Structure formats: structure tokens, C-alpha cells
Amino acid sequence: QAFREKMGAISCRWRDLHSKEAQLKSHMEKYGRTLKENDELRRQALKKAIEEREKRIQKDRELLRAKRELEDLRNKHQKLFNKVQKYSIFKKYLEDVVKISQFEDIQGVISRYRTLLRVCQDLLQAQQGHVEMSQQARLLLDRYTAEKEAEILQHRNELVQLQLRLEQAQSDTLLWQTRWDAMQSTTAERAQELGSIATAIHSLFQ
């Protein structure tokens, strides 16, 4: 009986342990899910914080760039304002020109000036074209002159060679003429000797 009572108590404690184990397992599962959820929330919060930080950095960069652009625009505006102030005297001058001329407004004066400027540019281009054509003609003339001078020099060299050959031919002619005269003189002497011999032979024959 005591054993059964003890076993019954043990069975009750065993059931309680199983129940507590099941509760503990359920609690551990819930705790695990909570940890996972907390980790996920922490990761999401960290990701969101990083994204917000990057967005803030990007906005700071854009703001800095916008400030620089604004500063550049202010500087350009100041320069343009200074230029307008500097050139305001020309506007007054053009207004005075309109008053004493046949132009109706400043735009007419500017249009006339642009027309004259285009005409001047066209004349300059035409003049440049004439200068280039003149330079090309000069180059062609120089080339032609150089070629003709080279031909003249060649003909002069040929003429010198021909003169040298002529002088040599005249010298040879004089030499051969002297030899010819000597040969004729010798022939005459031989003919006279031959005549004398023929006369002697004829006399001897007689």
C-alpha cells in the first residue's frame, strides 16, 4: 500500500514534471520566437537607422552642393550686375546716338552694327582668300621660275660642252689641215720626183 501510494505520488510528480516540461518547452518556444522577433526588429531598426543615416548624409551632400551652386549663382549675379553697371554708359551713349540719327531705337543701331560687322568679316574672308590665291600663284611662279632656271642652267652646260667640242673639233681640223697640207706637199714632191724619174727612164730608154 505504501509502495502504491509512493508510486502514485511519483506518478503525480511525473505528470507535474511533464506538465512543467511542456510549459517550459512552450515558454522556450515563445522566448525563442520573441528573440527572433526582437532580432528581426533590431535588424530592421539598424537597417532603417543606416538608411536614414545615408539619406541624411545624401541630403547633407545635396544641401552642400546646393549651397555651393547658390554661392556660384550669387557670384555670377554679382559679376553680371557689375558688368551691367559698367556698360550702362554705353546704353546712354546708344540712346544719344538714336536721338541724333535716323534710327528709331537702340535695336536698330545694334542690327546695323551687326550687319556692318558681317560685311567686314565677309570682306576679311574675301581678302584672306585673295591673299591665299596670291600666295599660291607666287608659289607656282617661284616653282616655274626655278624649273626654267634649272632648264636654262642645263642648256648653258650643254652649250659649254658643245663649245668645248667645237673648239676641240676646230683644233682637230687645224691639225688635220696641217697634216693634209704636209701630205699634199709631200705628194707634190713625190710627184715631181716621179716625173723626174719617169723623164730619166724615158731618156735612158731613148
From TrEMBL:
Record's protein name: CCD42 protein
Domain DUF4200 per the UniProt entry, residue ranges: 2-99
Keywords tagged on the record: Coiled coil
Entry superkingdom: Eukaryota
Recorded coiled-coil stretches: 24-83, 145-172
GO BP annotation list: spermatid development
GO CC field: cytoskeleton
